[in-house]
Amino acid sequence: xxxATTGKAALFYPYTxxxxxxxxxxxxxxxxxxxxxVYSLLLVNFVxxxxxxxxxxxxxxxxxxxxxxxxxxxxxxxxxAAWVVLVILFELETYVLADRVLEDSTIRLVKLIRALCxxxxxxxxxxxTANALDNFKITPLPEITDLCSPSVEGRFLQINIVDxxxxxxxxxxxxxxxxxxFKIDVNVSLxxxxxxxxVQNMGWVDISNAYVWILVVLLIEAEVFLQEADRFxxxxxxxxxxxxxxxYLVLFINAGIWFCTGYPIYAWDAFLWIVGxxxxxxxxxxxxxxxxxxxxxQQE
Length: 300
Known about the structure:
This protein is mainly alpha-helical. Helices cover 68% and strands 5% of the residues.
């Protein structure tokens, strides 16, 4: 069996994301519309996350908070910014510039920017990890049993993993059903016992999601490298695809957890990112199909 033939077989290997996306190659206009729509929505989501992080920073940290704590609070925004740039770079490499000969300086610039993005992505994953572990650094506040006490008026109460509400006479009786309250790490905001357990549990989902995405993007890098080497029918390439498909399944499970626990915006964001990277996968499938055809012609 020739390399071209094995490469063609690899395109339609079952049970991988690559094989599921192949039908879209027959409808390029639809694929392009979906791809650019998703990219546009990802940019909108970035703005939404920036606003959410700013609100969390304003409500939970004091003006004298250390820089590392502030950066941890903005982990979502840092992560989103880095991923948006990574998607743009992958789009350039696997579609826009795939058939062009690039100058060495351009290649070096793309690799430098991508390396910086990976640094930010890893730092954001560290931020998610630190935030999740910080949720276990709690200080009980036995003196606070009633949010209608004048001593807590004007402070913020954390009501879920992202939202805070200012305690006031108008809402103090209905804002929480808890009677036991805590302070997390250096935060100046309060959190009830039931919400604390919820926030602690959801922190593990954040950690899982962050590191699974890092593994996915590293596997995409490996796939790009193998395709550039024309190793379409290799066993290693197939293993990369199978592992990557499994990791996408984990990301879908995380999205489902967010949706079922009352965070539809997080679930929507996760879905958008998955589809956004599937657009990159579609680029790889197109690139592979075209290259396999070229190799078949060369061997005739």
